[in-house]
Task: structure prediction
Amino acid sequence: MVTRRALLKNTAAAGTALALLPRLLQAQSAGEIITRAIPSSGEEIPMIGLGSSATFSSMARSPETTALRDVLRALVDNGGTVFDTAPGYGGGSAEQVAGEFVNELGLQEQVFWATKVNVQRRRSTAPADPAAAMAQIERSFGIINKPVIDLIQVHNLGDVPTQLAILKDLKAEGRIRYIGVTWTGARRYPELAELVRNEPLDFIGIDYAVDNREAAETMLPLAQDNGVAVMVYLPFGRSRLWSRVAGQTLPEWAQEFDASTWAQFFLKYIAANLAVTVITPSTSKPANMVDNLGGGVGRLPDAALLRRMEEHVDGLPSA
Result:
Protein backbone atom coordinates (compact mmCIF):
# COMPACT_ATOMS: atom_id res chain seq x y z
CA MET A 1 0.00 0.00 0.00
CA VAL A 2 1.37 3.42 -0.98
CA THR A 3 0.47 6.32 1.30
CA ARG A 4 0.78 10.01 0.48
CA ARG A 5 3.58 10.19 3.03
CA ALA A 6 5.53 7.60 1.09
CA LEU A 7 4.69 9.26 -2.21
CA LEU A 8 6.02 12.61 -1.02
CA LYS A 9 9.13 10.96 0.40
CA ASN A 10 9.94 8.93 -2.67
CA THR A 11 9.01 11.28 -5.52
CA ALA A 12 11.86 13.66 -6.35
CA ALA A 13 9.55 16.19 -8.03
CA ALA A 14 7.48 16.51 -4.89
CA GLY A 15 10.29 16.72 -2.35
CA THR A 16 9.71 16.18 1.34
CA ALA A 17 6.62 17.39 3.19
CA LEU A 18 8.67 20.05 4.94
CA ALA A 19 9.98 21.38 1.63
CA LEU A 20 6.52 21.22 0.10
CA LEU A 21 4.78 23.33 2.72
CA PRO A 22 6.27 26.78 1.95
CA ARG A 23 5.78 26.26 -1.80
CA LEU A 24 2.15 25.39 -1.27
CA LEU A 25 1.60 28.40 0.96
CA GLN A 26 3.17 30.68 -1.63
CA ALA A 27 1.12 29.18 -4.47
CA GLN A 28 -2.12 29.53 -2.54
CA SER A 29 -1.51 32.99 -1.11
CA ALA A 30 -3.07 34.71 -4.10
CA GLY A 31 -6.42 32.96 -3.76
CA GLU A 32 -9.07 32.20 -1.17
CA ILE A 33 -10.71 28.86 -0.56
CA ILE A 34 -13.93 28.43 -2.49
CA THR A 35 -16.99 28.44 -0.28
CA ARG A 36 -20.32 26.75 -0.84
CA ALA A 37 -23.67 27.53 0.72
CA ILE A 38 -25.50 25.10 2.99
CA PRO A 39 -28.84 25.02 1.13
CA SER A 40 -31.07 24.97 4.22
CA SER A 41 -29.60 28.19 5.62
CA GLY A 42 -27.47 29.90 2.96
CA GLU A 43 -24.47 29.87 5.32
CA GLU A 44 -21.21 29.70 3.36
CA ILE A 45 -18.50 27.28 4.46
CA PRO A 46 -15.05 26.57 2.95
CA MET A 47 -15.37 23.53 0.77
CA ILE A 48 -12.20 21.82 1.96
CA GLY A 49 -12.20 20.64 5.55
CA LEU A 50 -10.54 18.00 7.72
CA GLY A 51 -11.72 14.50 8.54
CA SER A 52 -10.60 12.48 11.55
CA SER A 53 -10.83 8.91 10.35
CA ALA A 54 -7.85 7.05 8.84
CA THR A 55 -4.46 8.61 9.66
CA PHE A 56 -5.89 11.19 12.06
CA SER A 57 -7.52 8.41 14.09
CA SER A 58 -4.32 6.37 14.06
CA MET A 59 -2.31 9.31 15.37
CA ALA A 60 -4.93 10.02 18.04
CA ARG A 61 -4.34 6.51 19.42
CA SER A 62 -0.58 7.01 19.56
CA PRO A 63 1.57 8.86 22.12
CA GLU A 64 2.42 11.49 19.48
CA THR A 65 -0.93 13.28 19.50
CA THR A 66 0.59 16.77 19.57
CA ALA A 67 1.07 16.64 15.79
CA LEU A 68 -2.71 16.81 15.47
CA ARG A 69 -2.70 20.21 17.17
CA ASP A 70 -0.61 21.51 14.28
CA VAL A 71 -2.99 19.97 11.75
CA LEU A 72 -5.97 21.73 13.31
CA ARG A 73 -4.02 24.99 13.46
CA ALA A 74 -3.04 24.58 9.79
CA LEU A 75 -6.71 24.08 8.89
CA VAL A 76 -7.86 27.29 10.55
CA ASP A 77 -4.81 29.43 9.75
CA ASN A 78 -5.17 28.68 6.05
CA GLY A 79 -8.87 29.36 5.61
CA GLY A 80 -10.58 26.10 6.56
CA THR A 81 -13.22 25.63 9.24
CA VAL A 82 -14.98 22.28 8.88
CA PHE A 83 -13.79 19.43 11.09
CA ASP A 84 -15.60 16.11 10.82
CA THR A 85 -15.34 13.46 13.52
CA ALA A 86 -17.30 10.71 15.25
CA PRO A 87 -17.38 9.13 18.72
CA GLY A 88 -16.17 5.85 17.24
CA TYR A 89 -13.16 7.11 15.28
CA GLY A 90 -9.94 5.85 16.80
CA GLY A 91 -11.91 4.05 19.48
CA GLY A 92 -13.11 7.46 20.68
CA SER A 93 -9.64 9.01 20.68
CA ALA A 94 -10.05 11.13 17.54
CA GLU A 95 -12.97 13.20 18.81
CA GLN A 96 -11.52 13.45 22.33
CA VAL A 97 -8.04 14.55 21.25
CA ALA A 98 -9.35 17.00 18.65
CA GLY A 99 -11.71 18.55 21.19
CA GLU A 100 -8.88 19.03 23.67
CA PHE A 101 -6.72 20.78 21.09
CA VAL A 102 -9.54 22.95 19.75
CA ASN A 103 -10.19 24.16 23.30
CA GLU A 104 -6.49 24.54 24.07
CA LEU A 105 -6.05 26.69 20.96
CA GLY A 106 -9.23 28.65 21.60
CA LEU A 107 -10.73 27.66 18.26
CA GLN A 108 -14.22 26.62 19.40
CA GLU A 109 -15.93 29.45 17.54
CA GLN A 110 -13.71 29.20 14.46
CA VAL A 111 -14.17 25.49 13.85
CA PHE A 112 -17.35 24.15 12.25
CA TRP A 113 -17.64 21.08 14.46
CA ALA A 114 -19.34 18.13 12.79
CA THR A 115 -19.78 14.89 14.69
CA LYS A 116 -22.08 11.88 14.62
CA VAL A 117 -24.26 9.61 16.72
CA ASN A 118 -24.74 5.87 16.44
CA VAL A 119 -25.08 3.47 19.34
CA GLN A 120 -26.35 0.68 17.10
CA ARG A 121 -23.86 -1.84 15.78
CA ARG A 122 -23.46 -1.62 12.02
CA ARG A 123 -24.92 -5.05 11.23
CA SER A 124 -27.45 -5.10 14.04
CA THR A 125 -31.20 -4.99 13.47
CA ALA A 126 -31.93 -4.24 17.12
CA PRO A 127 -33.31 -0.78 17.87
CA ALA A 128 -30.92 1.83 19.19
CA ASP A 129 -31.27 2.68 22.86
CA PRO A 130 -32.44 6.33 22.99
CA ALA A 131 -30.83 6.86 26.39
CA ALA A 132 -27.50 5.54 25.13
CA ALA A 133 -27.74 7.72 22.02
CA MET A 134 -28.45 10.79 24.13
CA ALA A 135 -25.55 9.95 26.44
CA GLN A 136 -23.23 9.67 23.44
CA ILE A 137 -24.39 13.07 22.18
CA GLU A 138 -23.89 14.65 25.59
CA ARG A 139 -20.33 13.30 25.67
CA SER A 140 -19.72 15.04 22.35
CA PHE A 141 -20.99 18.30 23.82
CA GLY A 142 -18.63 17.86 26.76
CA ILE A 143 -15.66 17.17 24.49
CA ILE A 144 -16.03 20.26 22.33
CA ASN A 145 -17.26 22.43 25.22
CA LYS A 146 -19.68 24.40 23.07
CA PRO A 147 -23.33 25.04 23.95
CA VAL A 148 -24.32 24.50 20.32
CA ILE A 149 -22.78 21.92 17.98
CA ASP A 150 -22.74 22.86 14.31
CA LEU A 151 -23.66 19.47 12.83
CA ILE A 152 -24.53 16.02 14.15
CA GLN A 153 -25.36 13.22 11.74
CA VAL A 154 -26.71 9.71 12.23
CA HIS A 155 -23.66 7.60 11.41
CA ASN A 156 -23.95 4.72 8.95
CA LEU A 157 -27.76 4.91 8.78
CA GLY A 158 -27.94 3.40 12.27
CA ASP A 159 -31.59 3.09 13.39
CA VAL A 160 -32.47 6.37 11.71
CA PRO A 161 -36.04 6.65 13.08
CA THR A 162 -34.81 6.59 16.68
CA GLN A 163 -31.59 8.56 16.38
CA LEU A 164 -32.71 11.15 13.84
CA ALA A 165 -35.75 11.88 16.02
CA ILE A 166 -33.38 12.78 18.85
CA LEU A 167 -31.39 15.07 16.56
CA LYS A 168 -34.54 16.77 15.32
CA ASP A 169 -35.59 17.48 18.91
CA LEU A 170 -32.16 18.88 19.77
CA LYS A 171 -32.20 21.08 16.69
CA ALA A 172 -35.64 22.40 17.67
CA GLU A 173 -34.19 23.20 21.10
CA GLY A 174 -31.35 25.14 19.47
CA ARG A 175 -28.59 22.80 20.66
CA ILE A 176 -27.69 21.61 17.15
CA ARG A 177 -27.56 23.87 14.11
CA TYR A 178 -27.69 21.21 11.38
CA ILE A 179 -28.61 17.51 11.23
CA GLY A 180 -28.00 14.75 8.73
CA VAL A 181 -27.25 11.11 8.01
CA THR A 182 -24.20 9.33 6.59
CA TRP A 183 -23.43 6.24 4.56
CA THR A 184 -20.46 5.13 2.48
CA GLY A 185 -21.00 2.69 -0.38
CA ALA A 186 -23.83 2.40 -2.88
CA ARG A 187 -25.60 -0.57 -1.29
CA ARG A 188 -28.02 1.50 0.78
CA TYR A 189 -28.47 4.41 -1.61
CA PRO A 190 -32.20 3.62 -2.02
CA GLU A 191 -32.70 4.00 1.74
CA LEU A 192 -30.59 7.15 1.82
CA ALA A 193 -32.55 8.56 -1.12
CA GLU A 194 -35.84 8.07 0.73
CA LEU A 195 -34.48 10.01 3.69
CA VAL A 196 -33.33 12.85 1.44
CA ARG A 197 -36.82 13.04 -0.05
CA ASN A 198 -38.82 12.69 3.14
CA GLU A 199 -36.83 13.98 6.12
CA PRO A 200 -35.78 17.56 6.96
CA LEU A 201 -32.09 16.86 6.49
CA ASP A 202 -29.52 19.64 6.27
CA PHE A 203 -26.65 17.30 5.27
CA ILE A 204 -25.80 13.88 4.00
CA GLY A 205 -22.31 12.40 4.22
CA ILE A 206 -21.23 10.04 1.41
CA ASP A 207 -18.10 8.77 -0.33
CA TYR A 208 -17.10 10.10 -3.74
CA ALA A 209 -13.82 10.12 -5.69
CA VAL A 210 -12.51 10.34 -9.24
CA ASP A 211 -12.47 6.53 -9.40
CA ASN A 212 -15.64 6.09 -7.32
CA ARG A 213 -18.27 8.02 -9.25
CA GLU A 214 -21.58 6.32 -8.55
CA ALA A 215 -22.71 9.04 -6.15
CA ALA A 216 -22.61 11.57 -9.00
CA GLU A 217 -25.19 9.59 -10.90
CA THR A 218 -27.68 9.22 -8.07
CA MET A 219 -27.22 10.83 -4.68
CA LEU A 220 -25.54 14.10 -5.63
CA PRO A 221 -28.24 15.31 -8.03
CA LEU A 222 -30.95 14.12 -5.64
CA ALA A 223 -29.41 16.04 -2.74
CA GLN A 224 -29.07 19.14 -4.89
CA ASP A 225 -32.69 18.93 -6.06
CA ASN A 226 -33.90 18.58 -2.46
CA GLY A 227 -31.76 21.34 -0.97
CA VAL A 228 -29.50 19.05 1.09
CA ALA A 229 -25.81 19.79 1.63
CA VAL A 230 -23.29 17.07 0.79
CA MET A 231 -20.21 16.30 2.84
CA VAL A 232 -17.83 14.07 0.88
CA TYR A 233 -15.77 11.38 2.58
CA LEU A 234 -12.89 9.26 1.24
CA PRO A 235 -11.87 11.59 -1.61
CA PHE A 236 -8.66 9.59 -1.96
CA GLY A 237 -10.45 6.25 -1.72
CA ARG A 238 -8.80 5.78 1.67
CA SER A 239 -5.28 5.13 0.29
CA ARG A 240 -6.39 3.55 -3.00
CA LEU A 241 -5.69 6.54 -5.22
CA TRP A 242 -2.23 7.04 -3.70
CA SER A 243 -1.39 3.48 -4.67
CA ARG A 244 -2.61 4.10 -8.20
CA VAL A 245 -0.50 7.21 -8.76
CA ALA A 246 2.66 5.82 -7.19
CA GLY A 247 5.47 6.53 -9.64
CA GLN A 248 3.16 8.62 -11.85
CA THR A 249 3.88 12.24 -12.73
CA LEU A 250 1.05 14.74 -12.41
CA PRO A 251 -0.05 15.57 -15.97
CA GLU A 252 0.93 19.02 -17.18
CA TRP A 253 -2.64 19.83 -18.18
CA ALA A 254 -3.56 19.81 -14.46
CA GLN A 255 -2.23 23.38 -14.54
CA GLU A 256 -5.34 24.31 -16.50
CA PHE A 257 -7.34 24.02 -13.27
CA ASP A 258 -4.55 25.13 -10.89
CA ALA A 259 -3.71 21.70 -9.49
CA SER A 260 -0.05 21.42 -8.54
CA THR A 261 -0.24 18.10 -6.63
CA TRP A 262 -2.10 14.83 -6.90
CA ALA A 263 -4.13 15.71 -3.80
CA GLN A 264 -5.38 18.88 -5.47
CA PHE A 265 -6.11 16.93 -8.66
CA PHE A 266 -8.32 14.50 -6.74
CA LEU A 267 -10.03 17.18 -4.65
CA LYS A 268 -10.71 19.56 -7.53
CA TYR A 269 -12.41 16.75 -9.42
CA ILE A 270 -14.92 16.47 -6.55
CA ALA A 271 -15.17 20.21 -5.95
CA ALA A 272 -16.20 20.77 -9.57
CA ASN A 273 -19.54 19.10 -8.81
CA LEU A 274 -21.82 21.92 -7.64
CA ALA A 275 -23.84 19.53 -5.47
CA VAL A 276 -20.82 19.06 -3.21
CA THR A 277 -20.75 21.41 -0.24
CA VAL A 278 -17.59 20.32 1.60
CA ILE A 279 -14.90 17.64 1.29
CA THR A 280 -13.23 16.26 4.42
CA PRO A 281 -10.02 14.35 3.67
CA SER A 282 -8.24 13.01 6.72
CA THR A 283 -4.61 13.73 7.48
CA SER A 284 -2.26 13.81 10.44
CA LYS A 285 0.31 16.15 8.84
CA PRO A 286 0.18 19.96 8.56
CA ALA A 287 1.84 19.98 5.11
CA ASN A 288 -0.83 17.62 3.80
CA MET A 289 -3.52 19.80 5.35
CA VAL A 290 -2.23 22.84 3.47
CA ASP A 291 -1.91 20.78 0.31
CA ASN A 292 -5.52 19.64 0.66
CA LEU A 293 -6.75 23.19 1.18
CA GLY A 294 -5.15 24.04 -2.16
CA GLY A 295 -7.77 21.78 -3.71
CA GLY A 296 -10.29 24.49 -2.98
CA VAL A 297 -8.26 27.41 -4.37
CA GLY A 298 -8.24 28.68 -7.94
CA ARG A 299 -9.90 27.30 -11.04
CA LEU A 300 -11.93 24.11 -11.13
CA PRO A 301 -12.05 21.73 -14.11
CA ASP A 302 -14.80 22.13 -16.68
CA ALA A 303 -16.77 19.24 -18.18
CA ALA A 304 -14.14 18.42 -20.79
CA LEU A 305 -11.36 18.39 -18.21
CA LEU A 306 -13.43 16.25 -15.86
CA ARG A 307 -13.78 13.62 -18.57
CA ARG A 308 -10.04 13.83 -19.21
CA MET A 309 -9.35 13.36 -15.50
CA GLU A 310 -11.60 10.30 -15.37
CA GLU A 311 -9.95 8.78 -18.43
CA HIS A 312 -6.50 9.44 -17.05
CA VAL A 313 -7.24 7.83 -13.69
CA ASP A 314 -9.14 4.94 -15.26
CA GLY A 315 -6.00 4.22 -17.30
CA LEU A 316 -3.77 3.94 -14.24
CA PRO A 317 -2.96 0.59 -12.65
CA SER A 318 -5.61 -0.65 -10.24
CA ALA A 319 -4.78 -0.46 -6.56
The domain at 35-314 is CATH 3.20.20.100 (TIM Barrel). The radius of gyration is 19 Å. The CA atoms of residues 60 and 93 lie 5 Å apart.
